[in-house]
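Bug report

Summary: structure tokens for Gamma-glutamylcyclotransferase differ between web form and batch submission.
Environment: batch mode, default settings.
Steps: 1) Submit the sequence below via batch. 2) Compare with the web form result.

Sequence submitted:
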Amino acid sequence: MVMWVFGYGSLVWNPGFHYDEKVLGFIKGYKRVFDLACIDHRGTPEHPARTCTLEKDEDAICWGIAFCVRGGPEEERLAMEYLERRECEYDLKTSVDFYKEDDPLNPAVTGVMVFTSTPDKVSNKYYLGPAPLEDMAKQIATANGPCGNNRDYLFLLEKAMHDIGHEEEYVIELANEVRKVLAEKVSPVKEPRASRVSSNTKSNVPTAHQILPQQSEAVATTI
């Protein structure tokens, strides 16, 4: 038996389960959005984090990593148990076609599983829905949970997409907006012009490449 799962969030840099093969590629008809609440990994019920889910868009593609688990029912069961614990905020498992860069017209693998969520605040308590970029940035900049803070999740995703050669404008724009929020939080109180620090002084806000992946966790962040 063979199981394939597509990662488009933290699975890209931190899969956390045993796999036999990973392949870079994309799926069609979906785009990455930060519309899902995380209340037990990178946030809390009182201050939820914003993490990735997928939104249907017939003109979009979403780059990520497909992981293959071989070895029989037991290996598949262990991987699925781990993923269901980790991706507990996702209420859907969707089957998609997966494409590789060298053949964008014909699927490399069919029936690939991807964790997604119902975009309905009534039926899905974890669905936050879209919000203005500035509001999302403020939420991401300040949310923290047992597995770390929300901003590192975003910065690590930004770095992971750069590392696989497929940077995403939406992710970069959101990450830069979060950096603006963080810069405002650490800025000193205004002083007379003569005593201000030179504008050439480097910012204390980290870039994506200054964030290193954290150690594997028993229950990690969302996909």
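Above is the batch result. After comparison, the two runs are identical; trailing whitespace caused the diff. The first strand starts at residue 2 and ends at 7. The beta strands are 2-7, 21-38, 49-70, 92-98, 109-116, 144-145, 148-149.
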